[in-house]
Design a protein that fits this description.
Number of helices: 10
Distance between the termini: 23 Å
Low-confidence stretches: none
Mean pLDDT: 94
Strand content: 15-25%
Amino acid sequence: RVLSVAENYRRDPVNRLARALLDAGSIGNPRLMIHHTLGGGDRMLISIWRHQKHASGLLLDVGVHFADIMEYFLGRAESVYAQTRLHEKIRKNPMAGRKDAEKGESPGGVYERWQKHMLAEFKATAEDAGYATILFESGAVAQYVEDHAVRGESIWKRAIFGSLGSLNLPGDRSGKRLQLFREGEETIDDERLLELVPDFRLDDITAALFGGDRLFEYSFPFPETDRKLIAVEYHELGTCIQQGRPPEVSAHEGARAVSLSYSLMESQVAGRALLVKEICDDQVNAYQAEINEHLGI
């Protein structure tokens, strides 16, 4: 059997370019990553189950993708210390009962047909905020804030700081340009980025779908971008089956991303920093124990 985990953020052409720039030493040795995503208030995020501990929870459903992209850029995470919170215990669904709920008010405009049939208000049981310090085997550190209950200003920030400069990264699947900063030099956010990585090439299927094998930006509606990345994932899976080679994101990498996400909740319960390996090996599982019992596993 061939199992490929459908991690889409790392397959974004702009994130591929960012990884190439890191590998080429464009900012030197990575020292610090800041990943902050804040917003949401008390609104339902896409669906009810994402707010339920026994079904998933936001810090897993959203966080697993952020965990994968952090390891994609910085390598294996070693330890995590975190605080988590359930700030908004009652969530509200503004789409409930709306006959005009067809498009434009959810990610990609693809969820409204179901959201209008969901409850207008419901109880949340899963944490909606995590504040973590993550240490990587390379010595790099990440300050990671994922807060889906913030009121007021919404913030997105992903940046990597190294010994020679820094990268400011755009939102995944946005097609926007990244920015390269180096002391005493002009900010680079255009085709000059490609000059720093002359060997950078996207794989054939990504290049065909996004319009070139050396991209620093692209512009498609969100649903189209999402479909293209899913197509890349399916193409890779089919190729792996045909050629008998392993996928880029196997069960091992997928399990690590889940473990890194759960490390936040387990650290909160344990009250200490945890090794990611302790979660991977199921040595620490106090938070998950209740879920396991509920599911009968």
